[in-house]
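Format notes (please read before filing issues)

Several people have asked whether sequences and structure tokens are stored in separate files. They are not. Every record keeps both together, in the order shown below: the sequence lines, then the token lines. Line labels are part of the format and must not be stripped during preprocessing.
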Amino acid sequence: MKKIFIVLPVLILLILADAGCTGKKPENKPAAPAVSVAPVKVGNESLLLLKDLEQNGDYVKSKTYPSLIKASIVQESLNSKMLVLDIRSAEQYSKGHIKGALNMKFEELPGYFESGIKPFEYDKIILVCDDGQVSGYTSCLLRLMGYGNVYAMRWGMSSWKGSFAAEGWMKGVSGKFESAMETRVNERPVANGMPDLKTGMSTGESIGKARFSKLFEEGTGNILISADEVFSNPQKYFIINLERKDKYEDGHIPGAMRYKPEGTLGLAEEMATIPADKTVVVYCGTGHNSSFATAYLRLFGYDARTLKYGNNGFMHDKMIAQKTALSWLPFSTADVNDFEVEKSN
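Then the structure lines:
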């Protein structure tokens, strides 16, 4: 695989001579040795894919990212030109689904969008899952593939009706690891490179198609990770916190490093600081934003996982207490509607 070497910006310290501040005659001191910085290796395929995505709208840097929609908006728009795709299991779907929603398998979505429908005949295509994270992950992939009218329903079916919330988000929220959090600011590692994609393709478009195909073939069985797994051995993972600085500094998972939600994805020099040889855990307040970020990182070859329920899954009580002070979004019954569902025989 051809490698492209990118030299990242280096902070150069200028040492002022005494004369500059005191008027004394400057001393003849030897020049400071030049700082040597190893080039960062980024595969040619990664650069081609980055360029192709940028030329096609640079979704992760756009105002429509992440593409989330409230259940109330979906309910109000049911009779409009909107398509709802329920990507839960057939068993979950049969127990209750949004009126008119079609049950689709994750693996079948690319073919369905390509030949089963004319996607842009719909004003919106809504993806629905149980908690909103799998649909967020899927929506990001489809958006990156060029389908700009795809949205994930926030909170999933838990926000549609109380019976789903009782088995989903209400069970998932927890404050069990609040005492295990740390406030130390962890510095990110130096940039080292990005994973090799190794598709064998020579254009950004063909590389993207190969990567999208692989991700849909892999399914969604390993895109989520629980707070129990992470807190049992945080050192095992490279943990990315996608939150504001004040939220991060108030408390985060031990070892977690803060990455800016709007200044990481799509930037080779930033993504190159994420190790390619460790499982990457991405988390945010609700798990929605991190599910979108996880899709992007996996597209570029990272073994990325989104933390199920985000901060809600381990510090829910703290989020409630600091809801106003830090603008947290703790899940509650106020997020649950009582909309009608259809059931399958």
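For reference, the curators noted about this record: Residues 50 and 267 are 8 Å apart (CA to CA). The domain at 59-173 is CATH 3.40.250.10 (Oxidized Rhodanese; domain 1).
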